[in-house]
Specification:
This protein has about 300 residues and is of the alpha+beta class. The protein folds into two domains: about 100 residues, Phosphorylase Kinase, domain 1; about 180 residues, Aminoglycoside 3'-phosphotransferase, Chain: A, domain 2, CATH 3.90.1200. It is built from nine helices and ten strands. The strands form three sheets. It has a five-stranded antiparallel beta sheet, with helices on both faces. Strands 6-8-9 form a three-stranded antiparallel beta sheet, with no helix packed on it. Strands 7-10 form a two-stranded antiparallel sheet. Helix 3 runs antiparallel to helix 6, helix 5 packs across helix 8 and helix 8 packs antiparallel against helix 9. The protein is elongated.
Length: about 300
Amino acid sequence: MNISRPLLDRLALKLSAYRSKLGMAEEHRQVALELLREKSSVADGTALFLVEGKFILHLSPRSFPDVASDEVLAMEAAKRRLGPELGSVILDVILAGELDGRSFMALPRCRPMSKNKLVLAWQRTAVRPLALRWLRGLVDLAEPASTQAADKFVAALHHLAGRDVLPHDIRSAAKASIAKISAKEANPCFVPMHGDFGLENILTSKNTPLVVIDWRGSLVQGFPIYDLIRLAGSLNLPPALLRAELAYHAKSLEASEEDTRIFRLAALGHFSANLGEFRVDRFPALAIEPFSVLGAPVAD
């Protein structure tokens, strides 16, 4: 993505129509716009701009022009499902629009996690109880077990079982999980799922100690447990604490420990079927930790 001077000028002009939303006075002047990131490390990542020193604007790449608008829709859907309290971690979209066929959105500026190891260690400790409490709230929103959920889980597990790049034990466990669901020995249910709940998607602000971003891959009817495992790896959660959290989630879901492994596998199957720009050859590394964490797999 090449950000040219003319594009910057057109974007600034476009934003001038949003002066009131940006908290600007009405006198005639150009919107202050600073390029923070021209392109992301992923093909569908957005360019980032600092607007008026207070907002972060995301501009979709030419090859994926709907990235920002899709994010807005996902954030709105998640807010509706989570309600005011749990949904407060989702930023309000200040403005959204389109430039040269590419969607954009602006969000309040927040603080990312520090790159300083000592500060990051402190931040991990500070954010841990907030994030775990939030995840407990999500699992408490679990829907009753249903045929719809069972069908979705089985479809995801079939996809996982068919991924030849994965280790045999993961594919074997997926097949065993399909058999358990089909025999009604496990009863899947839906929970809201972020899908990538790690430190890189957690911010803080002056008024909100926990802000969660990057909702484009989220699911209103998602898979239990996966967000917890993803967060645990990102926070280096002690095994004893992770076991305690898994026990809470299992109790809330009326599920056994074995069921929670099945739910993890189904989530991996979902990602396996929806890799997008993620490289297939990197998926095994992504899959191994959620599969093997805290104990033996469903099947050897």
